[in-house]
Amino acid sequence: MPRYAQLVMGPAGSGKSTYCSTMVQHCGTLNRSVQVVNLDPAAEHFNYPVMADIRELIQVDDVMEDPSLRFGPNGGLVFCMEYFANNFDWLEETLGHVDDDYILFDCPGQIELYTHLPVMRQLVERLQQWEFRVCGVFLVDSQFMVESFKFISGVMAALSSMVSLEIPQVNIMTKMDLLNSKAKKEIEKYLDPDMYSMLQDNSDSIRSTKFQKLTEAICGLVRGREWAPAWPSSTFGCDCGSVQIEDYSMVRFLPFDCTDEEGVNIVLQHIDFSIQYGEDLDFKEPKELDEEPANLNYDEIFQNKGNS
After folding, report:
1. What keywords would UniProt list here (predicted)?
2. Which of 17, 160, 224, 277 could disulfide-link 46, Cβ–Cβ 3.0 to 4.6 Å?
């Protein structure tokens, strides 16, 4: 039986721990067993039970206080993650070998871990060796997306992690519950964005001609019109001489409101689909009753259900 994992990524303060806590509670209502592993050696507080905590292996504070290292917060975190990569046996022993595991990995917020450092890529490869189907979940704060230029920055960060890790990735816009009704309506255009339209809407605010041309070039990269690599046919199952990245949902975002059960379930369904969760289960179509059976003893039914 396969095992399943979500790598919960995103900038610091994007709501990764809140996302994990919300998913644990939501899956609990669905009678699904979900575990969380904290991979942030600088974490202080989180309101979910942990299956494993990297701070049992190494902590940023200990690294920063070591007189022989003299690292700052960022350097200390990178050192901790590299130490973690050299001690994956600790994680394997902690996780065990339980079939059908579903684990959320609450990752650190330093973007360099997903852009040019090999640590997270090594983690993905090791999880795949342990028969995990891994999905990246990249979070951005909806309150951050108040201007098109900031949105483009968030999109590029998401694309960087996707290219680096080479796993299915679901991009999520968090903290929707903190927005007022006007802001929620305004932010809808960022969920399925047209990059050039957003740039034209903000063209008056760009005073520098060079900056405007740079932004247009970046939009072309994201949209795939200015930069379109000749991907081999094996990549997407077709001969794509000109690939538009948005056609493969690489820059689309799902809204995430931790107070909206239906919205949380939609996000979970997208992730489950990307890692093919539950494909081995045998689902049966429920039978429809045209009429209610006579003399139906509900007390007996609920009693038997509780004993089953």
Report:
1. GTP-binding, Hydrolase, Nucleotide-binding
2. 17
**Run of H or E residues at 102:** strand 102-106
pLDDT above 60: residue 9: yes
Q: pLDDT category, 206, cuts 50, 70, 90?
A: low
Pairing type for strands 102-106 and 52-53 reads: unpaired
Half-sphere exposure of 256 (CA within 13 A, CB side): 31
Nearest-angstrom CA–CA distance, 288 and 144:
48
- What pTM was estimated for this model as a whole? 0.77
| Predicted local distance difference test score (pLDDT) of residue 154 | 83
CB 7 within 8 A of CB 105: yes
Confidence at residue 245, expressed as pLDDT on a 0 to 100 scale: 40
Listed by start position, the domains of the chain span 3-200+250-275
Distance of CA 89 to the CA centre of its chain: 24
Six token digits for residue 71: 């690292």
Q: What is the pLDDT of residue 46?
A: 80
Element (H, E) at 61: helix 60-65
Q: Stretch 84-104: mean pLDDT, rounded? A: 91
**Containing H/E element for 169?**
strand 169-174
CA distance 44 to 56: 13
Backbone angles phi, psi at 184, to 5 degrees: -65, -40
Q: What value does the mean pLDDT take over residues 35-43?
A: 94
Give strand pairing partners of 169: 136
Contact call for residues 158 and 173 (beta carbons, < 8 A): no
Beta bridge partners of 138: 9, 171
CATH class of 3-200+250-275: alpha beta
Residue whose structure tokens are 């940023």: 60
